[in-house]
Design a protein that fits this description.
Layout: E1 47-50, E2 57-62, E3 68-70, E4 73-74, H1 76-92, E5 98-107, E6 116-127, E7 130-139, E8 145-156, H2 159-165, H3 168-173, H4 178-185
The structure holds ligand 3IX.
Ligand 3IX binds at residues 2-3, 5, 30-31, 36, 84-85, 88-89, 92, 97, 99-102, 129-130, 153, 155, 157, 159, 162, 171, 174, 176, 180.
Membrane topology: Peripheral membrane protein
Protein name: Acyl-coenzyme A thioesterase THEM4
Pfam families: 4HBT (PF03061)
Amino acid sequence: MPISIDPPADAPPPQKHPKAPGPGERTTPHYEGCRGCGDVPGSLRLASWVGEDGVSVHSRFDVRDEHQGAPGLLHGGMLMTAFDDALGTAYTQITRAAVTARLETDFRRPVPVGTTLWFRSRVDAIVGRKIYVSGVGFLGELDGEVAGTARALFVKVGAEHFLRHGRPEDLEALGAPREVIEAARAGN
Ligand SMILES: CCCCC/C=C\C/C=C\C/C=C\C/C=C\CCCC(=O)SCCNC(=O)CCNC(=O)[C@H](O)C(C)(C)COP(=O)(O)OP(=O)(O)OC[C@H]1O[C@@H](n2cnc3c(N)ncnc32)[C@H](O)[C@@H]1OP(=O)(O)O
């Protein structure tokens, strides 16, 4: 039985981080090696901007041949990747690193190759380490026909999460401080 990811009704509205970009500005990838939003081979190259309200985020994903699952159609897992990244980008405007604990996606319309998918994502609540985020994906234009919807729970983690489970060389490429990389190499 999955644990509920319904946001608590009485949680205060999330406030954007003071250093986050303002309305209409492009967001930066959370990690250049990310296959969702980084500028690397195999990436979906999701691009995101802060919404008019300064808190929500909208994102663009151009669906290409390499994203097919069935002939001429977007793979469902690729759509989930796009949602994961779009929803993740929404929370990074508000708070520090967190990882996806649960991601629920409803697939409402098939998405043909050549489509531009647009997403609107917002943080619904933050309670302790738990970040509740939801989003909608639209065919062709923001607020166009709905291709899918998603909800996610992200759980805040510290640097030790990446040190313990990731690879030192990736931390190095990220420009992490020397002591962080050495600790990772030593297995601490
Ligand atoms: C040093 C350099 C650092 C560099 C950082 C660079 C980049 C940052 C990276 C990413 C973040 C940035 C942006 C995000 C953008 C894009 C999205 C991509 C994100 C991903 O692609 S990320 C990969 C996939 N992801 C995982 O690889 C997670 C694997 N997993 C775990 O690592 C653990 O599972 C963890 C940590 C999640 C929890 O473990 P834990 O031991 O810390 O905490 P615990 O289990 O106590 O859960 C705490 C509370 O969350 C509730 N909870 C937990 N899981 C739940 C579930 N499934 N459903 C409902 N509720 C759940 C519990 O019920 C409890 O709730 P309560 O406190 O109320 O009891």
